[in-house]
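Lab notebook: predicted structure, single chain.

Context: the supervisor wants predicted structures on file for every construct in the current expression panel, including those that have not yet been purified. This is the next one on the list. No modifications to the sequence; it matches the entry in the shared construct table.
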Amino acid sequence: MVLPIYLYGQPVLRREAEDVPQDFPELKTLIANMFETLLQAEGCGLAAPQVGQGIRLFIVDGTELKEEYPECADFKQPFVNPEIIEESEEKVLYSEGCLSLPGISENVLRPKTIRVRYYDADWKEHEEELTGFKARIFEHEYDHLQGNVFTDRISPIRRQFVSSKLQKIAKGKLTGKYKCKLNG
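Prediction complete. Output recorded below exactly as produced.
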């Protein structure tokens, strides 16, 4: 089932998400619905707060990016209760967009490599190193679990530049070409 994507201005996007309990009802159904939603919206990542769930869960599907980013060829999976446990000092600047902030893209500086720990949908724990675009996707979605959006990471002058677009999104005057949860 395709879920509505919550747009900038929805309170759930600004709250720190809570850990997913192991007895969370219908976790695998939620994950399947999130993948269906992501496919319909043509994105590469989607966090639970973006579909109105204030829990520490996100999914990624970087497989469509494999031509430009070969490391993403098999990068399709859910991340339950993820955490970043180490970041490289080397940072990379790259343009990002977000399904919750349609029509906005800005350059964001992020660590090139990260070490992460998370659970899969079967509650098996994993720890691995992500680098390049895989790391960027993870970091972007992880920000959503912290109550942040990518525009929080841009310079104040760039934030001022996009503020009118953010206000239009928050007022429901600018939406995506996918099922959206409008504000207000």
